[in-house]
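Dear colleagues,

As part of the handover before I leave the project, I'm documenting each prediction I ran so the next person doesn't have to rerun anything. This entry is a single chain, and its sequence is reproduced below.
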Amino acid sequence: MKKDPIKILYEDEYIVVIEKAEGVLSVSTSRGRDEITAHSLLNSYVRNTAANKGFRGRRENGIPNRYGNEPRAFIVHRLDRETSGLMLFAKSEEIKRLLQENWEEAVTHRGYVAVVNSSGRIEGGQNVTVEYLIEEDGNGRERLNFQEGRITSWLKENRAMVVYSSARNNGGQMAVTDFKIVESNPRSRKTLLQLELHTGRKNQIRVHMQEAGCPIWGDKKYFGANQALLTENKKAHRLYLHAYALSFIHPVTGKEMVFNTGIPRSFRNL
């Protein structure tokens, strides 16, 4: 059964939280202005809902009527077309500005899940720094936990709109991703990861996974130099990356809003 392009999970007079399906563009680009996007669908919903409640638009002289300005949906952040999951929209320019200007402080958690090409170990590479979790064993000695860690690098986009990574400052933006192995299947060489973003760079998770030697299953853009992996990834029916958790401070009420879609069932079939 085909998924709905967007699913509304929460709405009040200030914000809307949706779950976007994979294959749906977040917002239109200069090359695809007529394409249906998450933003255009939500915009239509907000306007239709307002119309049903009595909104009749602006007067001819441009003065707003008693219902205020024309209702719209304002995009606050984006997901890649191929990535599914949670997105936050504002219902006014002011709320959008408040959220974007205070994004680092307002967002308390951004969690993703991904299926990667790996037999159960995140090895790292020359273009990223991988630090594993340090914990104590039963004898009070420190040891590395290879199941959890952090990937750090600097990301920069080239003219071909491909993001590349460097373990040293290359003049790009610093990117930090935490990972935790949930389960793995050595036979199929597939591993399910939980990932948390500490920065929100373009293609951050996809590039970090590529450079750590474990590209995301189904990624036909960031797969490294391994042509065998590209052939394997072409068999996947989607990019196995999903934004499953989003927590943030409401821009008006100050209440922490927590959303979690859970791990998609298809991600468990390793």
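Helices lie at 38-52, 93-101, 103-106, 204-211, 227-233. Residues 1-101 form a domain with the Pseudouridine synthase fold (CATH 3.30.2350.10).

All the best with the project,
I.
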